[in-house]
Amino acid sequence: MLLAKKYKFWFCTGSQDLYGEECLNEVARHSQIMVDEMNKSGLLPYEIVWKPTLITNELIRKTFNEANADEECAGVITWMHTFSPAKSWILGLQEYRKPLMHLHTQFNQEIPYDSIDMDFMNENQSAHGDREYGHIVSRMRIERKVVVGHWADEVVVGKIASWMRTAVGIMESSHIRVMRVADNMRNVAVTEGDKVEAQIKFGWEVDAYPVNEIAEAVSAVSASDTNALVDEYYDKYNILLEGRDAAEFKKHVAVQAQIELGFERFLQEKNYQAIVTHFGDLGSLKQLPGLAIQRLMEKGYGFGAEGDWKVAAMVRLMKVMTAGMKDAKGTSMLEDYTYNLVPEKEGILEAHMLEICPTIADGPISIKCQPLSMGDREDPARLVFTAKEGKGIATSLIDLGNRFRLIINDVNCKKAEQPMPKLPTATAFWTPEPNLYTGAEAWILAGGAHHTAFSYDLTAEQMGDWAAAMGIEAVYIDKDTKIRDFKKDLMLGEIFYR
Ligand code: MN
Hints:
- With 498 residues, the protein is α/β, with parallel strands linked by helices.
- It contains 15 helices and 19 strands.
- The mean pLDDT is 96.
- Residues 305-306, 335, 352, 451 line the site of manganese (II) ion.
């Protein structure tokens, strides 16, 4: 479900025919070694595919167009081993439409002091050739990632690995389809937005369905399928009856199991990867989808509450970007709910009514069944847990009326100081960088929402690079944020992004 395609990245080395056959053979041999070694490093989430050295305008143009046409190619990594006159790259770059990396490296790590001569310099002149190439990419205003350093250095390979996930996010953004089974919550501003513009900018398809169509798919799920899933829940999670009758409790859980199966079948049949619901618009559904939505998020679906399709798409995007990550700590929708303002212990309690993804859970997960304080349905079953400790990013994509802005805040997740036995929801607790006061002030000045798409497994750089590729503003709230400078960033954004 998470990612269907087996993406690859092309490695294209630039040179020219001025240096002779022998030199070009060396160029090709070197780049093949580099590609092999980087693939063998075990650090890259996707394979790099070596391509023959690009030495002419025609070949460069042809290669970039082949990259466009190859469905599995998620981007091209370019590197100038020698000098490659950059006018020969113009037409190819003009026609290229996928993510681009400029790896500024060289084959040898150290200058061979004893043996270096003019032939060596002509063969190994990335410092020279990469500047010529970089110039034309900048002059053409093409968005690309520049990574500098020796190709065998783990830090450098790690930067390539990180960018690969951004590139896959860029590629997959235009395959995100969000199903709305409810409109935006009445009168709420920040969850609204221009869906047509979102499709133009991000490639997202956002469609509405009457809630009872999906409710019919839920009621079509058989009792035996439902009961089998309930058994799975009872195996996997702790059951917290809290004084409720065991049989009655199980009936409530079964409602969620039936919703999970019905929703998943409906989403699969209609090819959607994200969904929004609204507690005030449930049609014939007996409960607000809680446990059901939590499980769908765990499987890789995006979700937004109260009609929040932007968060649904962002959660899906971020789950795709982290696909297959070893030791991933999780990605979820969250909501800024309430503060702890005790000095030295400041932080935001993150929760929602129900819908928090269990991928962020730390330790055991339990099922509770409690009334909702809103809406008019049965008490919904939900998974409760507390989230992991560690660094993460909280993102909010907002529509400013004439354009989008992505707000990215580095946050430090902690354990809440004490258990909260009466709170029937999953929770996280974090302190935003640089501290609660500046972080929250900057967030509010930027217009950030109460819903966020959160991940432990992505960085602000990755999300900012994705935003740049989409042509939208990204603002960063992190350890370096000062309100005076931050306001200037926002002012610059007003001028630049129109
Ligand atoms: Mn909400």
